[in-house]
Design a protein that fits this description.
- Belongs to the metallo-beta-lactamase superfamily. Glyoxalase II family.
- The protein is α/β, with parallel strands linked by helices.
- The protein is built from nine helices and 14 strands.
- It has a six-stranded mixed β-sheet, with helices on one face.
- Helix 4 crosses helix 9 and helix 5 packs antiparallel against helix 6.
- The longest helix is centred in the last third of the chain and has 16 residues.
- The protein is globular and about 55 Å long.
- Bound molecules: fe (ii) ion.
Length: 256
């Protein structure tokens, strides 16, 4: 089986557009639909025709181009059952544990409530690729708009259980701000400090920081590391539960 091909580009100001293409079947999925023109340009550059949209959640900067893409390509829009009413043009609803086929391989749906109530991620186990959108970012996680810190902590734990080698595509280029924040929470973490230095250079050059991996995030992303003694000591929360520590880290990032 041939490998899937991926095209990454910027939409709006800091949304990632991602196209996933199967060279055998010719199928192409747009992961969310943040903005029509950059998506169409990216598809045309590669000579791909969009057959699917994998919607992760209902926010406008992820669904804005749904209807226009559908009109242009007649593509099928797949999206979260728990917020289907807010997804323009949705054709097929999916929920936790559902699997469907794209490019002759399974795509598994992982529900990750927190950023929104119905947010889902798309995981391709055979290719070890995760589309995490606004649940897990490089060195960050999504803001809690519709669910509690406890819910988001559980959602992030589900993603952390995937194999370390899993390649993670995420929804926004927020990595520089996330890195500057992360070193305030986990200052003794040498891997994080060197990663933060690299990110400063990457962003100065205008390079993207996507993708990351689950293993790298587990080593460096404070939002996955609420159980670490060093972080608890830094926050003065040695006796707190993991989700309380996570909630404190999330609260501090909101005002960073
Ligand atoms: Fe969002």
């Amino acid at each position: 089986m041939k490998s899937l091909q991926i095209e990454v580009f910027i939409c709006r100001s800091d949304n990632f557009g991602v196209l996933l293409h199967c060279p055998e079947t010719g199928e192409t999925a747009s992961i969310d639909a943040p903005e029509l023109d950059p998506i169409v340009k990216a598809a045309e550059k590669r000579g791909w025709t969009i057959t699917h949209v994998f919607t992760t959640h209902h926010h406008g900067d992820h669904v804005e181009a749904n209807l226009a893409l559908k009109e242009k390509y007649g593509c099928e829009i797949i999206g979260p059952r728990n917020e289907a009413a807010a997804i323009p043009g949705i054709d097929r609803t999916v929920g936790d544990g559902d699997e469907f086929t794209f490019g002759k391989r399974p795509v598994r749906v992982i529900e990750t409530p927190g950023h929104t109530a119905g947010h889902i991620c798309y995981y391709l186990p055979e290719d070890m690729i995760l589309f995490a959108a606004d649940t897990l970012f490089a060195l960050g996680c999504g803001r809690l708009f519709e669910r509690s810190a406890l819910d988001m902590w559980h959602s992030l734990q589900k993603l952390a259980e995937l194999p370390d080698e899993t390649i993670v595509y995420f929804g926004h280029e927020y990595t520089l701000s996330n890195a500057r924040f992360a070193v305030t929470i986990d200052p003794e973490n040498a891997r994080l400090r060197s990663r933060a230095e690299l990110i400063e250079m990457q962003r100065k050059r205008g390079d993207f920081t996507i993708p990351t991996t689950i293993g790298f995030e587990k080593e460096t992303n404070p939002f996955l590391r609420a159980g670490e003694p060093d972080i608890r000591r830094t926050l003065g929360m040695e006796g707190a539960t993991n989700d309380e520590v996570f909630a404190e880290i999330r609260k501090r990032k909101d005002t960073f």
